[in-house]
Amino acid sequence: MAGIYIHIPFCTKACHYCDFHFSTSLKNKTHLIEAILSEIEIRKDYLKGELIETIYFGGGTPGLLSKKELSAILEKIYRLHSIKKDAEITLEVNPENISAKYIKEIKSLGVNRLSIGVQSFFDEHLKWMNRSHSAKQAFSSIKTAQNEGIENITIDLIYGFSKLTTNQWKENIDKVIALNIPHFSAYCLTIEPKTALAKIVSKDATLIPKDETSLNQFNFLIEKAKDEGFIHYEISNFAKEKCFSKHNSSYWKGSSYIGIGPSAHSFNSFSRQWNISNNNLYIKSVSSNKPFYEKETLTTKNQYNEYVLTSLRTVWGTSAEKIKTEFPEFYRHFIKHAEDLLERNLLKKQNNIFFLAEKAKFMADNIALELFAD
Ligand SMILES: C[S@@+](CC[C@H](N)C(=O)[O-])C[C@H]1O[C@@H](n2cnc3c(N)ncnc32)[C@H](O)[C@@H]1O
C-alpha cells in the first residue's frame, strides 16, 4: 500500500500565517506542470510497483489547476503506476475555486475527495489572515460541492489566534456540524518565522495568542466533536466512522509515499527525501537531468523517533510490541519513559499500546520528546 502526493506550488494570495512552499506568480505554471509530468516519469520506480491506494494534490492551491492540467497529471500517474480500483483521490481547493462546472470536471477525472481551506466562517478573520475568499463563499462552496455529489469533504479550520473569541470558535464548529461534513482538520495557529504574521505580532504583542485560550478552544473542540459523533483520530483531525483520510492515515501508519513537485517529501521507511523548494530551480533541474532533491538515510534511531512521534498523535497509539520487535535496542528506554508518563497520567495503556491521555493531547510533541532516543 502506497500513496502519491503532488505539490502544486501556486496561490493567488499569500496567507499571513503560511510558510508552505508556493509562489503567487502563476507565470511559470505551464512549465511547472511539464516538470511535474517529467518527475512522475523519472521517478516511476521509486515505489517499486506497490499498489497505489491514494493520490493527494496539496499545495499551494491545487484548485488552480485546470481540467486539462489535472487530467494530464492523472493520466501520467495511471499510465505508470498500478492504481487501486477505488483509490482515494483528494484535491485541496480554496472556496473561490469551486463552481458547479469545476466540480463536474474534476469528478469526471476521478477526484472523489475535496479538502477545502475554509479556516473560519467569519469575514473579519479571513481578512486578517489575508485569505482570498469570504465567509459566504466558504459556506456556499461546500453546498455546491455537496449538490454536485461530492460527499467526502473535509475542511481546514484554524483556532488559537488572537482575533478568534471562544464564542466564534463554537460557531465555526457549529457550522461544520450544520453542513454535515464527515471530516475536518482543526489546527492551532503557529506563528512561523519569516511569515507576514511573525512580523505583525512582533510589532504588537497583544496579537500573540494566549496558550490558555488556545487550550480552552482545543478542549471545547474535542468535547463537542465527540458529542457529535466525530472520532478524534489524530491530534488535528476529526472524522465520522469510515471517513478517515486514507492518505494521511497511511503517512501516520508509516506507509511509503512519493512526493512530486517542488518541496514535496518522499518516504520509504529507510529514507526520506525532499525536493527543492524553488519553482524555477525545480523546473531547470528536472528538465536538465540535474539532482532536484536531498536525501537522508534514516538510522534505526531516526525510525524509532519517527514512529513514536507520529503514532502517539493517533487513535491507534504507540505499540510497545512493535517497538520490541522492530527497534529492540530502544525497547527498555521506551518502557522506562512510557511507564513514567503513565504514572504522571499523561499516557494511558491498553493491550500494551500507549495512548495520550486527554489532558496530554495539547502537548503531544513534548510528550513524544520525552520518549525520544537521543
Ligand atoms: C497546505 S495548507 C492548505 C493550503 C490551501 N491552499 C489553503 O490555503 O487552505 C493546509 C492547512 O494547514 C493549515 N495551516 C497552514 N499554516 C498554518 C499555521 N501557521 N498555523 C496553523 N495552521 C496552519 C491551514 O488550515 C491550511 O489550510
In terms of topology, how is this protein built?
Blueprint: E1 2-8, H1 29-42, E2 52-59, H2 67-80, E3 83-93, H3 100-108, E4 113-119, H4 123-129, H5 135-147, E5 153-159, H6 166-178, E6 183-188, H7 196-203, H8 211-227, E7 231-234, E8 237-239, H9 246-252, E9 256-260, E10 265-267, E11 271-275, H10 279-287, E12 293-297, H11 300-312, E13 318-319, H12 320-326, H13 331-343, E14 347-350, E15 353-356, H14 364-371
Bound molecules: S-adenosylmethionine (SAM).
Can you offer a commentary on this structure?
Helix 1 packs parallel to helix 2 and helix 11 packs antiparallel against helix 14 (364-371). The radius of gyration is 21 Å and the shape is globular. It has helices at residues 29-42, 67-80, 100-108, 123-129, 135-147, 166-178, 196-203, 211-227, 246-252, 279-287, 300-312, 320-326, 331-343, 364-371, and strands spanning 2-8, 52-59, 83-93, 113-119, 153-159, 183-188, 231-234, 237-239, 256-260, 265-267, 271-275, 293-297, 318-319, 347-350, 353-356. The protein is built from 14 helices and 15 strands. Strand 10 and strand 11 (271-275) form a beta hairpin. The protein is an alpha/beta fold. 41% of the residues lie in helices and 22% in strands. It has 2 domains: 2-251, pyruvate-formate lyase- activating enzyme (Alpha-Beta Horseshoe); 300-371, Arc Repressor Mutant, subunit A, CATH 1.10.10. Bound molecules: S-adenosylmethionine. S-adenosylmethionine binds next to strand 2, strand 4 and strand 5.
